[in-house]
Design goal:
alpha/beta; Transcription Regulator spoIIAA; 5-stranded mixed sheet
Length: 132
Amino acid sequence: MKFQVEWDNPEKTIIRVTYPEKWTWNDFFESMVEETALMRTVQHTVHLLVDLRQSKSIPVGGALTHSRNALNDLPDNWGILAVVSTNVLIQRLATVFRTAFTNRIGAKTFVVASMDEAYRLIAQQESGTASS
């Protein structure tokens, strides 16, 4: 299975990206192109929900740089990035990412352990009660 990029709700406020067990940085960049295209079809805030629950790991090399560059290229209407993973490596990389990039991209990036947590985080963001 290749990655999937799709609207998660009828209001088109969440884009869900699902990655398979194994994926490449090329897959990542292809998914970002699709996400950006969807985001540009609406004017309101759009949150990204990245489901990495099936992923055993991430591709080798440049995770922080690739992520930073991709997020910097997103349209202005992106809200937050909620990454769903219980993988300790992914969780630690996200913590390093948030610490290294304290600008808008780091502050808008979160890792949670379940889809329910991701939806709660997005709902908090929408209501203005999200905390970092």
